[in-house]
Amino acid sequence: MDKVIITVVGKDTVGIIARVCTYLAENKINILDISQTIVDEYFNMMMIVDIKKAAKNVGDIIEDLDKIGEDIGVVIKCQREEIFDKMHRI
């Protein structure tokens, strides 16, 4: 399994989850866990996904999610699980 952590942060608006999840489904990226909250009109979502069967490589996925984030007015970050773990272990 190739796990990736995706975070989405920005002003809440209709369709954020739908847009991100539609992209993931279209590219055969499986959502393993998802958590989202809205605090004072700000949307925050964290997802753990499996890209083992993904239609694209992780670099292309990162670029695509950056573009989607720009289109819908949020910041989307995507990191491999091992990098995320090492960064947060310090």
Describe the protein in words.
The protein is of the alpha+beta class. It is built from three helices and four strands, in the order E-H-E-E-H-E-H. It has helices spanning 16-26, 58-72, 81-89; strands at 3-11, 30-39, 42-50, 74-80. A four-stranded antiparallel beta sheet has the order 2-3-1-4. The longest helix has 15 residues, at 58-72. It starts with a strand and ends with a helix. The mean pLDDT is 92.
Features:
single chain; 90 residues; alpha+beta; four-stranded antiparallel β-sheet
Question: What would you say about this model in short?
Answer:
The protein is built from three helices and four strands; from the N terminus they run βαββαβα. It is an alpha+beta fold.
How are the SSEs placed, and which strands pair?
Layout: E1 3-11, H1 16-26, E2 30-39, E3 42-50, H2 58-72, E4 74-80, H3 81-89
Antiparallel strand pairs: 1-3, 1-4, 2-3
Content-based structural category: alpha+beta
Tally of individual helices: 3
User: What coarse outline follows from CA principal-axis ratios?
Assistant: globular
- The residue ranges in which pLDDT falls below 50 over 5 or more consecutive positions are none
**What's the arrangement of strands in the largest beta sheet?**
2-3-1-4
Range of strand content: 35-45%
Task: Sketch the major β-sheet.
Answer: 4 strands, antiparallel
* Integer-rounded radius of gyration: 13 Å
- Integer average pLDDT: 92
What is the N-to-C order of secondary-structure elements (H for helix, E for strand)?
EHEEHEH
Tell me how many strands there are. Answer: 4
Task: Give the CA-CA distance, first to last residue.
Answer: 24 Å
Fraction of residues in helix: 25-40%
